[in-house]
């Protein structure tokens, strides 16, 4: 009897920043000849348009399960914890069934799951190897892994009257630059028994027991942090940037079938009117502004950013998602001077193809919340950043952007128009801006080398595929 072909089931958390890179990996594995099942919630499935032609790629199929929330629940950016909690309560049984009952498919050889959903590790008890996908980068993961040391050393919780700028001593390799304010946001607690801190610390420790760990990055970007991580998680695959690998594979196989390669297939409707607007701008003259898919702004914060952008010397393209504002009521009442300035030098859209925008010659800088996908996309495109991290790993990413890679500035914990204007100008003009541009161009080249034939990401991808094939023997 012929051996069962390797069959991988991927299950991301129902959040764009998690679905998008895992979908790219799914397509890469499928193009490399593995059978792939991509499991999502019914809501995400519909949002991806998964019934409309995405199942056409042979060997690639979508499955979906309910998330337990009512159909009319908005599931908007600010409510992501509710969605994950409901899914965790609702889906373990359904997920377990999908792992063991094959529904006419080949049995699952290996599951690639999202570390934020610890229940997905159940595969191990079923003797199905489970690999974790970390949607954040190695730099933040190393700080997550050090949480127990930070607690033991008394560096978390933060004492009363603490100095946020004091350097942290318990994250090896980062002693010289990581301040309290740069630790992941869940460390900003009053008690070490804080339930979110404890839940994240234990989910992170569990990650070390998986068969392996996947990162969407190139190994040279975070080499020092990866070396630390590998002392605890020896089987680590750095297979990114997945965008670039996918494009290269699409080209070499002549394949346009299967799930599309855009940064966020179908999440919000892309507004392409900004492309002719960008075409009409001079090279590197535009600040692209986007806070990813989860960040929520208060109206005062929105106005501070808006004034800062209107008053800086540059044009701007700003993604204002339909659920970006905490309360959409009153969002339409924009002061006259802002409306005028926007007409003259701005372009507002609800959603774009971010990869395409970052790759446009008119874009000179990216005002970002420092989500890992956005960070990797900006580095690949060679665009320097102004960071306003919102939560979780973004606090660490923005510190690496400003202090380690020196490809941007970090306005963490401040949100006033003067700082926005000053920092935008710092990244857009002058000697420091030139230096940041040179640095990010260097990193972009380094990332390209990782994904070129024979580069480290290709080698890691080959190893991952070989390891999965070996599991099916
Ligand atoms: C989250 C976390 O913030 C991030 O740090 C974590 O590691 C993964 O999940 P999110 O907040 O949405 O994700 O940010 P980010 O990781 O940057 O992902 C946003 C994605 O949306 C990017 O791939 C970006 O290209 C895409 N996007 C954003 C668009 O395609 N169009 C837009 O208009 C805006």
What does this structure look like?
- The chain has 473 residues and is α/β, with parallel strands linked by helices.
- It is built from 18 helices and 13 strands.
- It has helices at residues 16-31, 42-47, 80-90, 92-100, 138-145, 147-152, 195-207, 223-232, 242-253, 274-279, 299-311, 336-345, 354-358, 372-381, 394-404, 417-428, 431-451, 456-471, and strands at 7-11, 35-41, 60-65, 110-114, 130-134, 212-215, 236-238, 286-290, 315-319, 346-349, 363-368, 385-387, 408-410.
- Strands 3-2-1-4-5-6-7 form a 7-stranded parallel beta sheet, with helices on both faces.
- The radius of gyration is 22 Å and the shape is globular.
- The chain binds uridine-5'-diphosphate-xylopyranose (UDX).
- Uridine-5'-diphosphate-xylopyranose binds at residues 15-18, 20, 135-136, 263-264, 290, 292-294, 319, 351-354, 371-374, 377, 392-394.
Portion of residues within helices: 40-55%
The fraction of residues in strands falls at 5-15%
Number of strands: 13
Radius of gyration: 22 Å
Total DSSP helices: 18
Task: Give the overall shape.
Answer: globular
Strand order across the biggest sheet? Answer: 3-2-1-4-5-6-7
Terminus-to-terminus distance = 12 Å
Structural class: alpha/beta
Question: Main beta sheet: strand number and arrangement?
Answer: 7 strands, parallel
InterPro entries: UDP_glucos_trans, UDP_glycos_trans_CS
Keywords: Glycosyltransferase, Transferase
Organism: Spirodela intermedia (Intermediate duckweed)
GO molecular function, one term: quercetin 3-O-glucosyltransferase activity
